[in-house]
Design goal:
The complex is a heterodimer of chains A (140) and B (189).
Chain A (H helix, E strand, L loop, with lengths): L12 H24 L2 H23 L7 H26 L6 E3 H15 L18 E3 L1
Antiparallel strand pairs in A: 1-2
Chain B lengths: L3 H4 L7 H30 L2 H6 L4 H26 L3 H31 L8 H32 L5 H26 L2
The chains are: A mainly alpha (140), B mainly alpha (189).
Chain lengths: 140, 189
């Protein structure tokens, strides 16, 4: 049985099972990555593998490669908006100090939470902790 | 008379299928915004790593396995529908629904345990993101299962077999979202 044998360009059940096995193997790699204890390996095996898994699902299960090109462009446009949103807002979130502002609440939360985690209580959660937010930003 | 969405194909794609692609594009923006927000907060708040160490990686991995497997059964249902085998499509759709049910059950146990430990939605910003992202995804899982149940009975009757592919596309997208949620919430600690 040819695995590429197609009905309307699609694959056989055996092919889909093969993709599923590959996806499970990749899941195993993403779980094993953190065990090595090197941060960049963890990031690579976690997010690099996630991208590969997403590609396999989109290509082989959603048959995106057989779809009209404009569908791919439609989806990529949505992804581009996501990156635009990220690029526009992340500097104010990831940094707690800017040229004319300081996010006092965020700084305080990082300090408080780091301290709390260093002396973690058995139940861990810090009830009543105020989340850092833009509301705490001070302009000067 | 059939609805126009099932018969018309002005764009080169059946209109119903195009509608699903539009839905998925809008979902990319919804989940993309949520995950993007989480990532920027994660990078701006190193303490998130400490909070994330309390998420249950085993439960997350089991649910990843369940969703990947349910994606397989969803695409097999699509394959059966293409062969005009409504009975087999029905069977595979219900395997997929069983996957959705398993996912929700595992998630319920996981959340029950976490809430019991005091990690509630108001505990801190990490847990707010955690419950919001996983909860929104869980609602999509439940919605997908309901849609698959409706489509499955039509498929068994040999009607509207093209809907098996449409609901499958949605399901694969739900799987895709989880593929990114899993490393963000369970592995990057």
């Amino acid at each position: 049985m040819s695995e590429a044998a197609a009905d309307h360009g699609h694959h056989t059940p055996a092919f889909y099972v093969k993709i599923w096995v590959i996806l499970l193997m990749l899941l195993g790699v993403s779980l094993a990555g953190p065990e090595i204890g090197i941060q960049w390996v963890t990031l690579l095996t976690a997010f690099g593998i996630a991208v590969v898994k997403a590609y396999l699902v989109a290509k082989n299960f959603m048959h995106l490669n057989l779809e009209r090109r404009y569908v791919v462009y439609l989806l990529l446009t949505a992804v581009a908006f996501m990156f635009l949103f990220y690029a526009g807002t992340s500097p104010d979130i990831m940094n707690h100090v800017g040229r004319n502002w300081t996010n006092v609440a965020a700084q305080a939360e990082v300090e408080r939470a780091t301290e709390a985690l260093n002396h973690e209580v058995p139940h861990g959660a810090d009830h009543g902790a105020e989340p850092a937010s833009a509301e705490g930003a001070e302009h000067h | 008379m059939k609805p126009i969405a099932t018969t018309r194909s002005a764009t080169g794609i059946p209109t119903g299928k195009l509608a699903v692609w539009w839905l998925i594009a809008s979902e990319i923006v919804i989940f993309g915004g949520l995950l993007g927000s989480y990532i920027m907060h994660r990078l701006g708040h190193p303490e998130f790593g400490g909070y994330a160490s309390h998420t249950n990686t085993v439960a997350g991995a089991i649910n990843t396995f369940v969703l990947l497997t349910s994606s397989l059964t969803a695409v097999l249902a699509h394959h059966a529908a293409e062969q005009k085998d409504g009975e087999k499509a029905f069977k595979y759709l219900w395997f997929t629904i069983a996957g959705a049910a398993t996912f929700v059950i595992v998630k319920s146990f996981e959340w029950h345990h976490e809430i019991e430990q005091g990690y509630t939605v108001t505990a801190n910003m990490f847990w707010s993101f955690y419950y919001c992202a996983a909860g929104l995804h869980g609602l999509h899982v439940i919605a997908g299962a309901i849609m698959m149940a409706i489509v499955s009975f039509r498929a068994r009757a040999g009607k509207e077999l093209q809907q098996v592919e449409l609901v499958g596309l949605y399901w694969h997208f739900v799987d895709l979202v989880w593929i990114f949620l899993f490393p963000l919430l369970y592995i990057a600690k």
